[in-house]
Amino acid sequence: MISVQDWAEIRHLHFAEGLSARAIASWLGLARATVSRALRAEAPPKYSRPPRPSGFDAYEPRVRALLAQFPTMPASVLAERVEWTGSASWFRKRVAVLRPEYLPKDPADRLQYRPGDQAQCDLWFPPTSIPLGTGQVGTPPVLVIVASYSRFLTARMLPSRTSEDLVAGMWSLLADQLGAVPRRLVWDNEAGIGRRNRLAQGVPEFTGALGTRVLQLKPFDPESKGIVERMNHYLETSFLPGRRFTSPVDFNAQLAQWLPVANQRRVRAIAARPAEQIKADRAAMLPLPPNAPAIGRRSRIRLGRDYYIRQAGNDYSVDPAAIGAMVEVLTDLDTVTVTADGQIVAAHQRAWAKNMTITDPAHVVTAATLRAAFQRPRPTVGDEELLRDLSVYDRAFGVEIEIDENTILDGEVA
User: Where is the Integrase catalytic domain (predicted)?
Assistant: First the structure.
């Protein structure tokens, strides 16, 4: 059997160069019968092996019967049910060929996106350890939002995946990086956003303030969020390699420098650059609201003698002068702020590590001053200040006492 290359050369010499079969056989060193067969063949030579009986053939009817009833039954269970004794890998290969005939078809449509209509949101957990402080390391989530029409990429690392931090992260990316509000924010079933068609606390207030809505996808629908899923992979392969990070703040700083470069790349699917397409996308989006929505974790507590409040797993000091008063605590992505009667009594940078105690030195000084004043002995009242004329009580109760020469007064001797 000759090779495909020889077959092509024989046909070229005969039909293009006009050589005879004998001349071609002499030129290529082949038998004339071989050259004649190559000239008669309309298709290139192809090796084919005639089918031979297989040990799987006797088991196939029973495997098909099980697959018809249980299409997703694992191959190991199928082998056990039909009492297969041969090679496990060979059995799996044959089952993989048969299984698609019994599985329901799940076609994936090619979606078309309109300018300003939607942005896809997801959490990416970078496969690297980020120093969080005090020797702790971790992998905080990165919120990724991609405008579906323009493929414009925005991202930021968040301290946690709680509802308050997710809402604050969405506002940060929409206001600071995207510059407009898509008409729909597409999420999967992230617990911090909502579950079972019920949005988490704080999310409806946020979307209502922006005039947008959150669309949570049904399970097993990756195509509807495929753009942001591919962006997660792009971040992992194009941003992460070769970088080292000293803290989450450093991670966000490097990410902010890289994103403009990433948005200048040419995307094959849209045959354009996201930095150019975002203009049309923004023009069709909703404008940012004139007043920023209420974001962050808010709480109201009474400050105790231990002048610390606990937020997101850490303790933060508060001005001891506010002990006993009701204080309002606001925790956003960057800071922890405490106010009392409209006055700021504490302001700290939010810690990314856990189980930490963050203390303002000024609060320690104030606590020492208040403690010394509390422990200072109070002045005693003199005995003369405790004496009072008893006639005061007589006049208070309207009692009149007549005094004559026979009346013995208190303290007098008869």
Answer: 111-282
SS3 343: strand
Q: Encode pLDDT of 114-165 as tens digits.
A: 999 999 999 999 999 999 998 999 999 999 999 999 999 999 999 999 999 9
Alpha-carbon distance values, 313 to 157, 160, 291 (Å): 18, 11, 30
Q: Which residues contact 207 (CB under 8 A, 6 or more apart)?
A: 185, 199, 213, 214
- In CATH, what number does 118-284 get? 3.30.420.10
Distance, C-alpha 132 to centroid of its chain: 17
Helices (H), 108-184: 163-173
Tell me which residue of 278, 382, 362 sits closest to 317, measured CA to CA.
362
Query: Which residue has 């997101």 as its token pair?
Result: 312
Q: Three-class SS of residue 249?
A: helix
Torsion of CA 115, 117, 118, 119, to 10 degrees: 40
For the chain, the structural domain boundaries read 4-40, 60-101, 118-284, 297-375
By C-alpha distance, which of 209, 201, 155 is closest to 181? 209
Residue pLDDT, tens place only, 76-111: 999 999 999 999 999 999 999 999 999 988 776 677
**Contact residues for 254 (Cβ-Cβ < 8 A; gap 6+):** 243, 245
